[in-house]
Design goal:
The chain is about 30% helix and about 30% strand. It has about 130 residues and is an alpha+beta fold. Strands 1-2-3-6-4-5 form a 6-stranded mixed beta sheet, covered by helices on one side. Helix 2 (about 50-65) packs parallel to helix 3 (about 85-95). It is globular, with a radius of gyration of 14 Å.
Length: about 130
């Protein structure tokens, strides 16, 4: 099967050795995504809802580049730095996925690569048909 890597252009991709997303056949895996914009500025500082929303919007954009949409998402993973804020992360996730209802996990971790990041979201999509 053909493999297609999708880059965000971030310098970290070459340093660490990863892609924003990888599509093989009808499966697309989207790497951990945080709320940082094209200018490397954190979106939604100290706002778990806004950070989750922005991360999912970034995921949606790369899925579209790969020929998919959020409707094709079968699994998400949310790595959060403060599980007590689960309702904020969950509210944003629900706004995108309330009708799609992919499998998901919300896992508290000790930290992300920068302290201002509150959540990192991964997604798996399978294009049917």
């Amino acid at each position: 099967m053909k493999r297609t890597n999708y880059s965000s252009g971030a310098k970290w991709e070459d340093i660490v050795g990863y892609s924003r997303a990888v599509r093989i056949g009808n499966i697309i895996e989207v790497t951990g995504t945080v709320a940082v914009d094209d200018n490397n500025t954190v979106v939604g500082a100290d706002n778990a809802y806004e950070q989750t929303k922005f991360a999912i919007q970034k995921i949606e954009k790369v899925l579209q580049r790969a020929g998919a949409s959020l409707k094709d998402v079968v699994r998400t993973r949310m790595f959060v730095t403060d599980i007590s804020r689960w309702e904020e992360y969950g509210k944003a996730h629900g706004e995108f996925f309330k009708d799609i209802k992919p499998c998901t996990s919300m896992i508290e971790i000790s930290g992300l690569i920068a302290p201002e990041y509150l959540v990192e979201v991964e997604a798996t999509a399978i294009i049917s048909g």
